Amino acid sequence: MLKSDPESIDVTAQKHARNFQKDPSSVTVFSAKQLANRHVVSLTDLGDGSIPSLRIAQFSGRNSALVVNIRGVGVLGDSNQPARDQGVGVYIDGVYVARPQALGTALFDVESMEVLKGPQGTLFGRNTEAGALNIITRRPTGKFGMRLLGGFGNYNSNKGELHLDLPAFHDLAIKIDAVTAHRAPLVTNPLPDTGGFNQYDKHGFHVEAMYHPVDNFTADYAYDNSYDSTTTLWMQLLKPGTNKLAQIAQLQTTRAKRAFVGVPEEPSIGKTNGHRMTLDYKAIPQYLSFRSITAYRELSQSQFDNGMAAGSMSNTSGKFTGVSFARNSLAGFWQNQISQEIQAFGHTKRLKYQGGLIYFREHAADNAQAFYTNQFTNASGSEYKLLTGPAYDDWGLQPIDRASHVTSKSWGVYGNAVYTPPILYDKLHLTAGLRWSHDGKHGTLTTVNNSAPINTAGVSGPIDFDAAWSRVDPLLEVSGDLTKRVLLYGKWSTGYKPGGANSRAQDYEAFGPESVSMFEFGSKTEFLDQRVRFNVAGYWGDYKDIQVDFSKPYQIGNQLTTRTTTSTINAPGHGDLSGVEAELNVSPMRYLTVGFSYAYNYVHIPPTANPYQNSLGVISTMLVPIYQNYTPAHSGSFQVDYTRPFHGFTLLAHLDGNIDSGYYANTTDPVYLGVGNARNVYQPKGDSGLIVNGRIAISNVQLGNTGTKATFSLWSRNLFAEQHAYFKSLGVTTGLQSYFNEPRQFGGQVELAF
Q1: Which of 354-358, 431-435, 671-675 has the lowest mean pLDDT?
Q2: What is the 3-state secondary structure (H, E, C) of 97-139?
Q3: Which one of 460, 520, 677, 743 has the minimum C-beta count within 10 Å?
Q4: Distance CA 58, CA 714 (A)
Q5: Using H for helix, E for strand and C for coil, what is the string for 314-373?
Q6: Which residues form the TonB-dependent receptor plug domain (predicted)?
Q7: Within its chain, how far is the Cα of 388 from the centroid?
Q8: Exposure of 589 by Cβ count < 10 A (0-12 exposed, 13-18 middle, 19+ buried)?
Q9: Is residue 392 exposed (0-12), middle (13-18) or buried (19+ Cβ within 10 Å)?
Q10: What is the pLDDT of residues 625-676, one digit of tens each?
């Protein structure tokens, strides 16, 4: 703990609280204060790279579905499918959140956010091959307290929060949280009476009741309900393709404030809610405790995306009369899950032990529609109209391109122990763990092209998918306290995510699990009277059976068509993972703390041949490169915090900067360039960029004699108005398109604590 920083940092990487500096693994922890300093409303706001090894981005420009990667591992390809899993496990108060569609909602009263880097398969299980994101909210205190927060900013943004702790009554403590946030579009849509691009409305509430009748037993029940309305990003055209552009089309090489064409834009609506019951029982204090976490969650998510109009405003002939454009992509997603975990843990003088079992069941379903909403009315493409008719007045009448549903079940049993042998003055610690998991999935592809699927043999009817896998994940770890403030460690851990089926595939064929095995060595040190903290870790690992998407033509019997489908395979060969992570925090003088963090992440996926025939019936042996998504080779962050108490108030000042070297946003697309099945686009990498955020506040201002304290603050995200194209997609005919980072945003807010 840096002496200038009043916060105490504990982590739960081992599923029990321990000091951050004593945890032998690479972990980054953001406290509530650090999140407030960055004006983080939802996980989307961490997409600026505040934690270098963690990457959070919108899937294909949709704020409603997030991509989460750690150390370059997470998901390749489409993350928006019910029978496909993520590689980063996201947990909220011990409950696994299975779907990325549920991650864009406003955050409740977060106490801390932990990023556990590297495979967590032993303690956390499936879908943690890259690591885990562990979010912990504040618990009821049993004492009366209330915090009110309100603020406004540019783009007509506003934010409000209520956090109410009620006095305990008959050993029952209750806490209520309510949040709301709004932002107008960042890019204006010229079409009136429809949504703009990249706007949001979020609100939700959370109620928690904690019953503590005796010292050794606690029952904690929580319910949350969230609403998230967002619109897609506007995709800009940077360079034209080989097709001839309509006259109305414009190249937008700097961040657009206004789209050059008006299109119908509908907000995506996400609704989530969930129940959690956590029971803690200390059977034999210190030696044996039990914990039960029971949860049920559900979500519904509509996804609308009409922000890619620029890419469809072209054709080979250059004659535009009657040509439709602005492809609107609609996707619905519905999911519910139940989970039950039972943990047993305790410790003696030399042994810390824990074990547990978990059951997880999920039902998920999706559908998709795609249709054009605009049409050119003259030959040069300088004028256009909206398409009208029943299906355009009610998009629910549009044909269903595809639909599927799947049920997933998972069981796991694990054990983990840390032993301190009576040698070397109790400075050596040995850890061993093991988890057995079993995963099963049963799904059905029910619709393709608004009718029953037709498989490649020409047989029509729903196509079933049924598969199961078992897996063992070990953990071995050695750590040593070189001094009281110096920890050295080495570990080997593994993790995996199950296989599944691609709902974009014609035959809904199964693919198998992928896995990561990783070695990590590191040190955690504090010196100069704890005014300097330096943590560093290096890792290398094996990336195996990587799930990769490839396109193939739609086939009816022996007839191949130009319409493509997407199937997923486990790429042959082994990939490589390696990197270095470092964090340095320095308190050079009283009241001032300076922090630096850096990550080098290297991911190599073996070039892979498309195993499917093309529309000419040819199978190519050409190996195509596979690019890992959302993984800059170099990324870093700095932060400066100044906390100075004065008579009657405290001055707080914060500045942080986040930089990366750019990354790929597409894996590969062997469709566009070259001849036959040897076609390939060598995808461009996004631009590097530096995003700076700042906040200044006056806190602990006493209001009269009521005991009420106020905090007045000003904040800014992207303080210096940096702009860069972080996401680039290249099509030979459609050209180079991109998403830009968000413009400068700023505002002020007031918080009252009673």
Answers
A1: 671-675
A2: ECCHHHCCCCCCCEEEEEEEECCCCCCCCCCCCCEEEEEEECC
A3: 460
A4: 27
A5: EECCCCCCCCEEEEEEEEEEEEEEEEEEEEEEEECCCEEEEEEEEEEEEEEEEEEEEEEE
A6: 22-131
A7: 37
A8: exposed
A9: middle
A10: 888 888 999 999 999 999 999 999 999 999 999 999 999 887 765 433 333 4
C-alpha distances out from residue 291 to 132, 215, 348, Å: 20, 15, 18
In which residue are the tokens 């619709």 written? 447
Q: CB of 154 within 8 A of CB of 745?
A: yes
Strand partners for 30 = 113
488-507 confidence digits (pLDDT tens): 999 999 999 999 999 988 89
Angle formed at CA 174 by CA 171 and CA 176, multiple of 5 degrees: 175
The tokens describing 528, both together, are 């100069």
Q: Considering the entire predicted model, what is its pTM?
A: 0.93
Length of the chain in terms of residues written = 754
Side-by-side strand order, sheet with 725-731: 236-239, 735-740, 725-731
In 3D space, the residue among 142, 185, 182, 183 whose CA is nearest the CA of residue 164 turns out to be 142
Distance CA 235, CA 739 (A): 5
Whether 678 has a pLDDT exceeding 50, the answer reads no
The three-state (H, E, C) secondary structure of 199-210, written as one string: CEEEEEEEEEEE
User: In sequence order, what DSSP letters do the residues of 427-473 get, joined into one string?
Assistant: TEEEEEEEEEEEEEEEEEEEEETTB--B-TTS-BS-EEEEEEEEEEE
Phi, psi for residue 685 in degrees, rounded to 5: -95, 145
Tokens (6 digits) for 116: 């556990």
The separation between the first and the last C-alpha atoms of the chain, rounded to the nearest angstrom, is: 29
The burial of 558, by beta-carbon neighbours within 10 Å (0-12 exposed, 13-18 middle, 19 or more buried), is given as exposed
Q: What pLDDT digit, counting tens, does each position of 260-315 carry?
A: 999 999 999 999 999 999 999 999 988 999 999 999 999 999 999 898 898 899 99
Backbone phi and psi for residue 231, each to the nearest 5 degrees, phi listed first: -115, 160
Pairing relationship of beta strands 592-604 and 608-609 according to DSSP bridges: unpaired
Which residues have C-beta within 8 Å of that of residue 741, sequence separation ≥ 6? 48, 255, 689, 691, 718, 722, 723, 724, 726
Residues 457-478 have pLDDT tens digits of 889 999 999 999 999 999 999 9
